Input
Amino acid sequence: MNKIVRGVTNKLLICHLILCPLSAQALDTETKEDTIKAIYSYKFGKFTEWPTSKLNLNSMGFCILGTNPFGQSALDAIEGKPIKGKTLHIKFFASGLLSSDALPECHILFVSQSEKHRVQTIIDALHYQSILTVSDIEGFSGNGGMVTLINIENQIRFEINPDNVKKAGLLMSSKLLGLAVIRHNGLEPSP
Amino acid sequence: MIISMRNLSIKAKLIVMMTITTGISMLFMAIIISINAVLVKHDSILTELSTLAEVIGSQSTGAIEFDDPNTAREHLNALSVKKNIIYAAIWLENGQIFAVYVPHANSYNGLQAPPNMFIKLLQQLSMGKLADTIKISKTIYFEGQSIGEIQIVSSLMPFYLHLINYFSRVSIIVLTCFILGLAVSARLHRLISSPIIKLNRATKKVSKDNAYWVRIPNHRNDELGNLIDSFNHMLEQIEMRNQQLADYSNQLEAQVEERTVELIQVNERRIQWLENMAGVLKHELKNSTVGIKSSLELIERRAQECSIDVYLNRAKKSLHYMAILLDSISNASSIEATVYKESLSPLNLTSFIKSQADEYRSYYPQYKLIDQCAPNITILGNENRLKQLLDKLVSNAFEHCYSNSPVLINVLKKDGWVELSIINEGISLPADKECIFDLFISLRDSEHKKSDSLGLGLYLVQLIAESHGGSVKAIDRKDKEGAIFTVKIPLIKKSNATV
Output
């Protein structure tokens, strides 16, 4: 019995040794992508202007709604970074638990893939508050969101809906808009 | 240059001065304007490139932040409208190149390249501050943080071409202004040179021809106008004075002539009167003398009394004295009447004196006579009259000298004159010796006896000395008792020596 267990264990170890580099490489790619997404989400904030009423706190809130898609290194890359002269703090909210009390502390809201089916609810809950909404959920900016991160040929690009940005009382820099795929409500996205 | 300009005419001087001043001013202005133009143009290029770098860098912040080199490149490609930009690039903060712009054709709009020599000259003058290209680097900031750097390199060839065009225009303008200035100065110099030239001409005419009637027309009220007025006034004054002098001169000449005629007439009348008077007096006295003489002879023959002899002798003696008086008056009036009319001829005074001295020594062996004559003394003189003069002075010296004392005849030259001195040792001159040469004055006693001289001798000496253009004076000896009679006669002039 022990021999059988030992043999299976060895086979698994060999299998692990063979397969491990592949899974590590995949892990690295994924890690890099989530870091880029985190950094991009942070940088969107740099090119966005909030109403002054939204900037009366000492810090800027980067809120993640749903399952955290970012690794620790991605979070470390943006935690405490300056934005609009304030420090960025990351806040986590469980799926569907975005309370109205927490909304004033959020300046950037990253909607995780786990909230894919509740996008409309979330958008409605935000009720056009001055919060920059970012997500990698496909069609997010076409469904009331503002910025959608898209992976195009292993390059992270983004789609922006300026109508929704405007509705939320935000101003987005043309420098950012010039880099993005623009998507207006009711229209096909244009590069 | 200033020294070489000194001999130019005032007209040329003014033109040269105005030309040089204008030329230097224009050149200096052109240099300053050109330097300013170079600096302004260079600064404008720098500013333009700097602005472009700022704008493109700012535009590219999003591209850098979101790692979008294509967009950054598009931004850089906007520089293609600037043909002078030959290179542009954006670097990331880590030194990695992010986007590059290189124009397709590395030419500056197909313009002709400026001459190398001009470029080198400008680069040398700028002490290396100007090169073939100009490079601007700007750090790209976003949210107060440096996120990269943009660099733009521009060719300066269009700048040099612009400068060539600019310098050409400036040169043409400067040259035109210079020629205009020259043309204007060629007219304007007359404002100053014309009156000075007129003054110069008038001065030359006045100094050459004594044309004091010359006047310079004046229509100005400046300093030169005042100068011309003063010059005209001065000429007027000189002319007036000249006229006055001429008038005075003519008047004086007329007066002198009139006076001379009067004097000649008076003198002739006086001489005539003297001659007549002497003749009449002689004739009348002679007649009287004859009467007296014949009467005396009759008395002498008829009366044999001794007492009458005394009176007869006295009358004879008076008769004799009267005869002497008559001769002397006749002689004196004759000399006075003729002495100024007698001609003078060159006479060797040295030989004459020596000859006369020898004669005196032979006639008067009882006196000691010494003669000291400077050699070769020639005067214009009348030998007979001079003999009379010397006879009188020597006999006078003998008459008044102590026995055995010498009489000295001394002749010497002094300042164009001959001084003939007769010096004796004996009776001093009287106190009123100033009158010694007057007519009928005899002041000295001879050997303590009253002289029977009529006082004509020294008067004749003075007359003869003056007729020779000279004078005579008498002084006491200072070393001992005695007198010195000195006659001064002018030496013969060279022009008369051959007469």
Q: What stands out?
A: Confidence is low (pLDDT under 50) at residues 446-451 of chain B. Residues 223-302 of chain B form the longest helix (80 residues).
